[in-house]
């Protein structure tokens, strides 16, 4: 077992909590066999609104009524569906369309007919294509890692391509299968379930923003394994979805500051004359400002949001990467093979892309590994200070911020999010340290 394995496994598992958050904690069932009572009631009420619109001659109300009848017909059994379809056909040519809707409402009030049982996975139907692809990617990567750990003959390159192909296929299939937004209150539907109706909920059937009346600051146990916060929201659900926010910010901000830092640092180390000196001075000047203080100053003047936090952390963390890449580019630029390329007429951009970039790529990878942990820590700090992702969206820093006033009476509010954040940062640090230990000097990249 290599030095990176424990940290990599830990990071993979903690990232899995974020990626699989809807399957761990959420109000949508994994699978259900239910009668669409709530959808039928909504469609019936919508017909009442459209009936008044038709009576008043509101523009576009006839087309909206036809669509509403189509939605209602899809929920009913075959005999009733045929009647609604006939009413929909008459509506187009009727001189009194409001009367047609009134007759349908009188004929099919809620509970008047036995609705057919509809089977499926509400959770899968609601997933975003990118989300579905990431979940398949995580599961396939887990399977590939287990096979290699068990000694199975799995080619790493072929396995990685297969994993990526599965993720893209899952995202494409989900984009085709995704339906209209589901507004069903699933736990209410489960409580009112009749014969033949079944529901399979996640282990924690509570969403991250869902409040439970009378469950404020409840200690761990029962339906809430990690307890609830001061507003009655399940803490495990908040941690799983908050980890998703923190990891999204961490990886996206890392990609941004590595991209900016690698580009500026590579050009500063490759270009000669005034251009290289100016970029070097820019890097040194930016490093005079502490990253956290600069981020705090910028957040004070902008509207908080996930994208804003990503941009602020990414644009304040790039000087460290740029300085590292510039130093490596200067070292490699003095090598014999780079000097030979310049003598043969290669320009600065070609030298940077063809000769310098491959030699500094390993250092950029190490910087990116350290950058993920740093970005997560900065996001948590901003959230703890109230300048991060705005509520009610969960993040690890916001969870710790909400625990400040209840440390004595509700210890679990600080302990569990703090342990998760500490484990996440420790895993990132261990992976980064192992990568730095393995990234030795490259052949042909000797110093001056």
**CATH topological fold name of the domain at 235-438:** MetI-like fold
CATH-derived architecture of the domain at 235-438: Orthogonal Bundle
Strand content: under 5%
CATH homologous superfamily name of the domain at 235-438?
MetI-like
> Helix-strand pattern, N to C?
HHEHHHHEHHHHEHHHHHHHHH
Largest sheet, order of strands side by side?
2-1-3
Keywords:
448 residues; mainly alpha; MetI-like fold; 3-stranded antiparallel sheet; 19 helices; 3 strands; 2% strand; elongated; disordered C terminus
Question: Your description of this structure?
Answer:
The protein is mainly α. Among the domains are: 36-88 and 108-115, no CATH class; 235-438, MetI-like fold. The protein is 66% helix and 2% strand. The chain contains 19 helices and 3 strands. The protein has helices spanning 5-19, 21-24, 37-56, 61-75, 78-91, 97-107, 122-126, 129-149, 156-177, 186-191, 235-270, 274-286, 291-299, 306-316, 318-333, 336-343, 348-384, 396-402, 412-438; strands at 31-34, 118-120, 198-200. A 3-stranded antiparallel β-sheet has the order 2-1-3. α5 (78-91) packs antiparallel against α6 (97-107), α11 crosses α18 and α18 packs antiparallel against α19 (412-438). The two termini are 36 Å apart.
């Amino acid at each position: 077992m290599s030095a990176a394995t424990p940290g990599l496994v830990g990071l993979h598992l903690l990232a899995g909590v974020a990626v699989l958050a809807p399957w761990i904690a959420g109000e949508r069932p994994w699978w259900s066999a239910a009668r669409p009572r709530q959808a039928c009631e909504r469609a019936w009420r919508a017909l009442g609104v459209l009936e008044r619109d038709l009576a008043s001659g509101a523009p576009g109300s006839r087309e909206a009524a036809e669509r509403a009848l189509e939605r209602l017909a899809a929920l009913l059994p075959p005999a009733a569906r045929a009647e609604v379809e006939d009413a929909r056909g008459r509506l187009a040519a009727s001189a009194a369309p409001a009367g047609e809707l009134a007759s349908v409402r009188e004929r099919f009030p809620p509970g008047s007919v036995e609705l057919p049982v509809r089977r499926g996975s509400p959770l899968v139907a609601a997933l975003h294509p990118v989300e579905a692809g990431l979940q398949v990617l995580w599961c396939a990567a887990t399977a590939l890692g287990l096979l290699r750990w068990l000694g199975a003959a799995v080619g790493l390159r072929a396995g990685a391509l297969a994993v990526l192909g599965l993720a893209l296929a899952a995202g494409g299939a989900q984009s085709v299968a995704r339906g209209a937004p589901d507004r069903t209150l699933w736990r209410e539907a489960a409580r009112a379930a009749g014969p033949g109706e079944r529901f399979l909920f996640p282990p924690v059937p509570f969403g991250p923003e869902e409040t439970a009346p009378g469950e404020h600051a409840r200690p761990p146990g029962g339906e809430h394994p990690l307890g609830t916060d001061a507003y009655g929201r399940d803490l495990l659900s908040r941690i799983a979805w908050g980890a998703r926010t923190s990891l999204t910010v961490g990886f996206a901000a890392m990609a941004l500051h590595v991209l900016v830092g690698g580009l500026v640092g590579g050009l500063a180390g490759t270009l000669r004359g005034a251009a290289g000196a100016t970029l070097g001075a820019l890097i040194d000047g930016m490093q005079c400002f502490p990253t956290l203080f600069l981020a705090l100053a910028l957040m004070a003047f902008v509207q908080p949001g996930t994208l804003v936090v990503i941009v602020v952390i990414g644009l304040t963390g790039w000087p460290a990467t740029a300085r590292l890449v510039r130093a490596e580019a200067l070292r490699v630029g003095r090598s014999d093979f780079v000097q030979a390329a310049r003598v043969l007429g290669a320009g600065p951009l070609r030298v940077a892309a063809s000769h310098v970039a491959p030699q500094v790529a390993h250092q950029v990878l190490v910087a990116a590994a350290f950058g993920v942990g740093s970005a997560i820590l900065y996001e948590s700090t901003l959230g703890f200070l109230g300048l991060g992702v705005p509520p009610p969206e969960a993040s690890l820093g916001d969870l710790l911020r909400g625990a400040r006033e209840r440390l004595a009476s509700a210890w679990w509010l600080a302990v569990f999010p703090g342990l998760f954040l500490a484990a996440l940062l420790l895993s990132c640090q261990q992976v980064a340290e192992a990568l730095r230990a393995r990234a030795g000097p490259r052949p042909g990249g000797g110093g001056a």
